[in-house]
Structures are given as structure tokens and as C-alpha cells.
Automatic annotation (TrEMBL):
Keywords: Hydrolase. It is an enzyme of class 3 (hydrolase). This is 5'-deoxynucleotidase. Transmembrane segments: none annotated. It comes from Hydrogenoanaerobacterium saccharovorans. Pfam families: YfbR-like. Its EC number is 3.1.3.89. One of its GO terms (molecular function) is 5'-deoxynucleotidase activity.
Amino acid sequence: MQNRFFAMLARMKLIRRWGLMFSTRDENLSEHSLDTAFFMHALLSLHNRRFLTPGEEPLDLGTGVLLAIYHDAAEILTGDLPTPVKYFSAEISEAYKAVEAASCQSLLDLLPADLREDYAPYLLPAGAYARYLPYLKAADRFSALVKCMEETRQGNFEFRRAAAQTREAISAMALPEADCFLRDFIPAFEKTLDELQTQEDF
């Protein structure tokens, strides 16, 4: 019997993000998910190496990366709902969460029964993954911030306010790992390729 799960996942690259914004280059859901996974890995590494408290269990990097890869999988079926709509009211937010959960369950149901247990924790994360969620939110925001920075570097001021708001939202999270990443790693995204390939600071 042919299975459709991975063919559906492949459609992530067809889902365009930032639907209400003029972009110099379109960003798709597949790109966003990979970027979010990169940032999630970095944030969890920073946590485990620099900010782990005595007696605290380290966060599992693989679990975090998989949560990031699948965090927006529901949008394969729902599309990318613009943020002003998604958070217009508490009622709309709750209704959309229910739609997302139903969409993820639909994707999960496409898998053979003996594989579902391996995917369910990432498509439908439960309370056991609560420790990872602040880092996932931060990683998601870093992906958005980098997109905003790329657009403003191209002279597209459509993203200027979104960049400032996203940066403020990251800072407001009061996550030391996110503050560290914002300070030490994000400035490099302003550099040209030549600048990135040299050891000199510009």
C-alpha cells in the first residue's frame, strides 16, 4: 500500500510565509522549519553548556531539533495564517490551535500504525516537552528576525517594524540563551559573504 505522509511533508516548500508582506524573496515553510531547527539546536546547546543549573537534567538536542522540524507541519493543510489574524482575539487563537491539532492528527494518521508512535511526540507534543517550548518559541522568532533582517538589507522597509518588534519579543522572553544568541551570533547576519569569510571584525 502506498503511503502519503512524506509526500505531504514535501509540500512544505509550497507553503509561502509572510503572506501580507511584500518580499524581495519568498520564504517557504520548509526553509523556515530548517532555520528554526538550526536555531533550536544552538539554543539548547547554549543551555546545556552555559546555563544548566546544578542538578538539572540537560535538554536532549535531538528531541529539540525534531520538535522544531515539525513545529509548523499543520500549515501543510492550513496554510500560513497571518499573525494579526491568528492573534486577533483569544477565541480565534484557541480555535486555530484546535485546527492545528486536527491537522497534525490528520498527518499522523497517514503513517502506518507501527510508525505513528515515533512521530506523534513531535507532531502533537505533550506536557513532557514543556521545557523545550520556550526555546522553540525563541528559535521560531529568530527565524523570523533573520528574514526581516535579510529584507531590510535589500532596502525593503516593509519589514523594518517587524524586525524591531521581533527583536523586542525575543528580549522580552528573558531567556539567557536567547540573549546570548542575539548578542553573539545575530550581528553576523548583517555581514556580506566577504566579511563572513575573513577573521577581521568590520
